[in-house]
Each structure stands twice: as C-alpha cells, then as structure tokens.
Specification:
The chain has 287 residues and is an alpha/beta fold. The protein folds into 2 domains: 28-106, Muramoyl-pentapeptide Carboxypeptidase, domain 1; 133-286, Lysozyme-like, CATH 3.40.80.10. It contains 9 helices and 10 strands. It has helices spanning 14-23, 43-54, 72-84, 95-106, 161-168, 212-215, 233-250, 260-263, 279-286, and strands spanning 133-134, 140-142, 150-155, 179-181, 187-189, 195-197, 203-205, 208-210, 216-221, 257-259. A 6-stranded mixed beta sheet has the order 1-5-4-9-3-10. It has a two-stranded antiparallel sheet with strand order 2-6. Strands 7-8 form a two-stranded antiparallel ribbon. A hairpin with a 5-residue loop joins strand 4 (179-181) and strand 5 (187-189). Helix 7 packs across helix 9. The protein is elongated, with a radius of gyration of 26 Å. It starts with 13 loop residues before the first helix and ends with a helix.
Length: 287
C-alpha cells in the first residue's frame, strides 16, 4: 500500500527515509545455539559464521555466498577459536564452544577481517607456532588436570641430535620432552602439549616443591651443556619463536620460563640449559 504525504511536507520526500535509515540500529551479532557440526546448513550456521567474522576467525568473503554451510573453512575457524580458548579442537560447535563464543562476543571481540587472513606478526609478543617435525615418544602420561603455567629449558648433554631424539623415543629410557631443538634449528615434537612429558624429575618452582612435569612444557636443546659449546644462531631463532608461542598460548608468566637448573632438587643437581646460554637474548625476543 502506498501512502501520500500531505502537501505541507511534499518538498522533503527523501528526508524521512534517510533519517529512518540512519536511525536504524545494526543487527547485533550473537552466538547461535550449540549443536552445529560440519555438513550442517541454514541460518544458525550463518549466525555462527557472522560471529566468527566479527571475532576475526573468518573473512566476509568466505561467508558471502550460500545460505550458511558448515564446510571446511568454517570447521577450521571453529578449531582455531577453540585452540585460542584452550578448548578441545574438535571443530564441533558444542556447549563449551558456545559459552566461549558468547563471552567473546560480549567483550567486543576483534574487528572483522575483509581480506585473506594473514598470520600475526612475530613482534610485539605475537607468535605463531613454528613448523615442527612429529617424532612421537611413548614416554608420557596424563597431567592429572594440572594447567600449563611453566616452560623448562634443558640441554641434551650431547651435540648428536639424532642420538638424542632416538633416546627420548626409546621406551627403556623413561625420559622425554615435549620438544627438541636441533643444532640446525629444526624443532621436533615428541609429546603433545596436553600430556605430561618426563623431563624435570624432582623439582621445585621458586623454592616451593612441586611436580614440574605436570605443569610445564619441556624443551630440550641439542648442546653438550659444558658451557663451551655455543648454541647456534638457528637454535636461538627457533627457540625464540617456539618459546614465544608457548608463552602466549598458555599465558605463562616470564618468571616461570626457567632452566632445569632453576627447578632441579637438590639445588645444583642440574646446570641446564648451560652456563653460556644467552637468557637475555631469549627474554628480549619473547617479551
């Protein structure tokens, strides 16, 4: 139905429409109900995608077509969000992910991304996980519900990365670490972050007895540990990227990034990562 304006306002026909458009509030982006998974379609999926765009996990271009399809890109975005919120990275939008998404949206979130997603820069405390070579070790168990709040650096006591790696993967050795940084800067991951690697032994943190294995990430650096063998440039670069990422990922305070020498009990039992390790360089690189 059309409505004619009275003669007294006939000269301002465009103004009311313009004012109406300006006054109309933009629709709020909210978290859809839980229970979405890969293969689902419909408005609830579109609502999820809009929320992921607002938080910076998807681009507008990725969700501009279709009625809302939970495809590989949406699944990848959900997994990235879950990882950032320290949730199981299943890609399934369940109750825990719904609660985390709702909280993130209520706090304002990140600005939408209009173009292709770029990895965050490595300066200013922003780190991505560096490339790692999978080398699974059987020497681990469960953390027992402990949160990760520490990083412990070790030396392998040799300059033979291949031999060190083989030893930590040998079930008879009963030792392991989450990562090993070889002389050439290659990073090997032996134990999943969420599992308890066997690297610290009897330990205390800041003088308080504790089970460091249950609360820390262990990093072995291939080095004789004699204080004379230099750590390589490639090792410092790889270690800075890895430690910076782990510090950021698990919100580890700088004071809890320590050497085995700092936590081993009794005091003096260990000298890791070695007297000639440049702690200042590492701390400056990850601060």
């Amino acid at each position: 139905m059309s409505v004619r304006l009275p003669p007294s306002v006939s000269t301002t026909r465009a103004a009311p429409a313009q004012l109406t458009r300006a006054a109309a509030p933009s629709a709020a982006v909210t978290a859809p109900p839980a229970g979405l998974r890969k293969g689902d379609t419909g408005p609830k999926v579109k609502q999820l995608q809009d929320a992921l765009v607002k938080l910076g996990y998807m681009t507008k271009a990725q969700v501009a077509t279709g009625p809302g399809t939970f495809g590989p890109k949406t699944e990848a975005a959900v997994k990235k969000f879950q990882g950032d919120k320290k949730l199981p990275t299943t890609g399934y939008y369940g109750e825990l992910t719904h609660a985390a998404l709702k909280k993130a949206l209520s706090s304002g979130g990140k600005p939408p991304v209009d173009g292709p997603t770029k990895p965050p820069p490595t300066n200013g405390g922003k780190f991505t996980k560096p490339p790692v070579i999978s080398a699974p070790s059987p020497n681990y168990n469960e953390r027992g519900g402990k949160d990760i709040d520490s990083i412990v650096l070790h030396h392998t006591a040799s300059n033979n990365g291949a031999g060190d790696l083989a030893w930590m993967r040998n079930p008879k050795s009963q030792v392991s670490a989450h990562y090993m940084v070889d002389r050439d800067g290659k990073i090997y991951q032996l134990v999943n972050d969420q599992k308890r690697a066997w690297h610290a032994g009897n330990s205390a943190l800041h003088g308080v007895p504790t089970d460091m294995n249950s609360r820390s990430i262990g990093i072995e650096i291939v080095n004789a540990g004699d204080g004379k063998t230099p750590f390589t440039e490639a090792q410092y670069k790889a270690l800075t990227q890895l430690t910076g990422y782990l510090k950021q990922q698990y919100d580890v305070p700088m004071k809890n990034i320590v050497g085995h020498a700092d936590v081993a009990v009794p005091k003096g039992r260990k000298n890791d990562p070695a007297p000639n390790f440049d702690w200042n360089r590492l701390r400056k690189g990850i601060s």
